[in-house]
Design goal:
Adenine-specific Methyltransferase, domain 2; seven-stranded mixed β-sheet; binds S-adenosylmethionine
Length: about 300
Amino acid sequence: MLPRNIAPKAPPIKTQGIKTKVVPLIARSIEWDGSGRWIEPFIGSAVVALNIAPQRALLADTNEHMIDLYRAIQNGSINGRTIRKYLEREGTQLLEKGEAHYYYIRERFNECGDPFDFIFLSRSCFNGMMRFNKKGGFNVPFCRKPERFRPALITKIVNQVEWAAKAMEGKDWQFLVQDWRLTVGSARAGDVIYCDPPYVGRHVDYYNGFTEEEADALAQSLIASEAGFALSMWLENKYRRNDYVDRLFSDYPQRTMEHFYHVGPQEKLRNAMTEVVVLSENVAATPAEVPESPLPLFERAELMDV
Ligand SMILES: C[S@@+](CC[C@H](N)C(=O)[O-])C[C@H]1O[C@@H](n2cnc3c(N)ncnc32)[C@H](O)[C@@H]1O
């Protein structure tokens, strides 16, 4: 039922640990008749939902900025034309005024939360990272490239906005700001819950403080749900293995893929990381449908675009 051969596209915003490269594995691992809703309690950048493009979806996150952005794309206030006009205007100001303009937009965003400004910051902050301080303010510094919004990048973002709009066009998608407990609790038989929770104890910021107890509670609610589930996370690298998966999901179907990430600036130094998708029996596609090789080789940190 899910598209088997997705060449994943990137959304208009960037997040830490964005799952773009894992989308094909997720899609091929799930067997689902599409009768219910595609449910994501931790939508983040929305890259998974946008690529899977189900007919009915409940997409939630506690980060209201993500949800506001996708609501704005859904209601058409952010579209290819409006984002181009906005980026051309603010990009010119950035070129003329330099980093002062970046910090002006950052302050404005932290006061008003405008989704246009959110895209601007996501695409011109240092390393494309997204972090919020203890008070919920976006606090990533400038990438130090006043010429950042060149025509090629603006066109790329316009295309990404238009692609996102197209993916949800004519579909029954609901975007909600809410805690995962409410989202998982609303799932019914026939639904599939795709979960990509924050790392426990890593990348902790205002929206991503996930404790071990919370991660355990999530596992229990997924297991207890009438809906099917797919949970993706890192499984191991050469130093560590994620004991959460072994402790709570050793009896569940698992599909894995390896990818490589660069260590420091030297291209030669690469470490392998195994990503896993843990599935409930009722939505696990037969392993034969999940090719074990070739292993995709990821050349660069994907956050660093154009
Ligand atoms: C790992 S990210 C999801 C990334 C997403 N799959 C992607 O590829 O962009 C985890 C998300 O969980 C959200 N989050 C953190 N705590 C949450 C909670 N208690 N309930 C719902 N969402 C939460 C964060 O705001 C963040 O967007």
